[in-house]
Amino acid sequence: MTASRLALVADDSAVVGQIQACLRQAFGREAPRLSLDGLRGQLTREDPVLLLLAASSPVESERVLRLVQEIYLQKLPATLVLVEVGTPGPGRGLARLEPYVAKRLRWPEEAGTLVDLLRERLARERDLFDTFDETLEDVLERRLLVQTPSLLPMLDRVALAAEHDVTVLLTGETGTGKTHLARLLHDCSPRANQPFLTVPCGALPANLVESAFFGHVKGAFTGAIDRKIGKFEAAGQGTILLDEIDTLPLEQQASLLRVIETGEFEPIGSNETRLCQARIIVASNWDLEDAVRQQRFRLDLYYRLNVMSFHLPSLRERIQDIAPLARAITARFNTRFKKDLFDLHPRTLEVLEAFPWPGNIRQLENVLQQAVLVAQGHELLVEHLPAVVRDHRPMPTSPTAIAKDSLKHTRETTERSVILRTLAANGYNRSRSAAALGISRVTLYKKMRAYGLLDSKASNGEL
After folding, report:
1. Residue 399: what pLDDT?
2. What confidence tier does 215 reach under pLDDT thresholds 50, 70, 90?
3. Which of 26, 277, 325, 338 has its CA at a distance of 20 to 30 angstroms from the CA of residue 315?
């Protein structure tokens, strides 16, 4: 995958050809081209870019509007140049974007203005037209930075798991993002162009588990009126996620163990042995070691599944993720409901960060879906949030809880949160983070150690 500081974002091939010809004549170079949909997921909070957003029809204008809103809602550091092709017609309400773009110009009438703007930018940034190949770590870092910066310390291990064909175990409370991480591992693996299938084990009746996994032949049992392909076969050479694996009955655990060990299985009612070629990722809401101790989960299967494991903390344990997640979720629902949001009010983020989120990211999504649906204007306000979140007041319920609510505890909690946010905003680079906080790098290191924020990466000089 390649990246660049400059990109032409357009769907109309004729317009793309015209603008690229202009750039070739003026600079001897072309701007990398992205489709309007292809831009999503390509930006980070790290590197400012210059985007030429071209719209030549009412449909494209609407999509450009939504892209600009997504960029502003997620606070992505992009400079936007709006290239409006032809004469505006009904539905081409791009004038409303005037406050949000660096320049709005007509094409082809103002082609010279575009060239002058790029020349001025080139005088400051000599690498504007340069492209570079992204490593796997670059792609993962970009995707984690935008939504879940707290997972950046896992970056090396996530890259290792994505690159190699090993079974991965994901644990964490319901709604913490295990499916999202599984999808990320698939998307960044050599199997990215193959299917990604999810099997919700907890939703399968015990007598249908093996049919769902392995399929069945016609007449295998009452009701089997036709042949059915199971998930392990349907996944092909892709990835299969077995969600809520802890709910799987012991009898079916034995069948799963065989597939993981040998890749072999038989559809129900068939003597033909087939080979599973899919990569297997499993997720559990509960501690499987505890399930093994309670004899609810096979020890040998646990060992087979736990080649590489990742634990996703609850959202209340990673407050620094709430703001970027809220921005990304709001941007998604803003586009779906065709709202006019460009930002979240700071007080809204404070209220979201103060809520304990027992349902984790899934609950956050539900709350923001409701909020965006009722929102009016350009900013998501506190009053748009459901009352259960808006009116939440944490109440200490024991002497220990009251003691923790002391001034010292409040100050330390706030300081830890500020440090985490600053680290995330600066790509977990301690030198830049210390400068942003106005303290020395040594002081930052001591505070990180005191708040338990150091890991193996930190001991090497950077997170």
Report:
1. 52
2. very high
3. 338
